[in-house]
């Protein structure tokens, strides 16, 4: 994907207002906020890893619940 940066204008190669366009825009805005506030790279990385970890733990808990339900259904 090619992105073109023109001062104060950020042009993305996604169709405007598509889900992809919004995702990339939100990610860019979040990263810009970190960078504008001079947050150290270590903190940015730690925050990203924390978010991924929370998501992973949540997915694992959901998987465990469905696995237990499947076992209960198959045991009857």
What's the helix-strand series?
Answer: EEHH
**SS-derived structural category:** mainly alpha
Gap between N and C termini: 52 Å
- Summed up, the helix count is 2
Helicity range of the residues?
55-70%
Q: What strand order characterises the main sheet?
A: 1-2
Low-confidence stretches: none
The overall strand count is 2
Structurally, the number of domains stands at 2
Provide mean pLDDT, rounded: 88
Q: What would you report as the Rg, rounded to the nearest angstrom?
A: 20 Å
Oligomer: single chain
Shape verdict: elongated
| Main β sheet profile | 2 strands, antiparallel
As a percent range, the share of strand residues is: 5-15%
Explain this structure.
The protein has two domains: 33 residues; 37 residues. The chain has a two-stranded antiparallel ribbon with strand order 1-2. It is mainly alpha-helical and 76 residues long. A hairpin with a 2-residue loop joins strand 1 and strand 2.
Which secondary structure elements does this structure contain, and how are they paired or packed?
Blueprint: E1 4-6, E2 9-11, H1 19-36, H2 41-75
Antiparallel strand pairs: 1-2
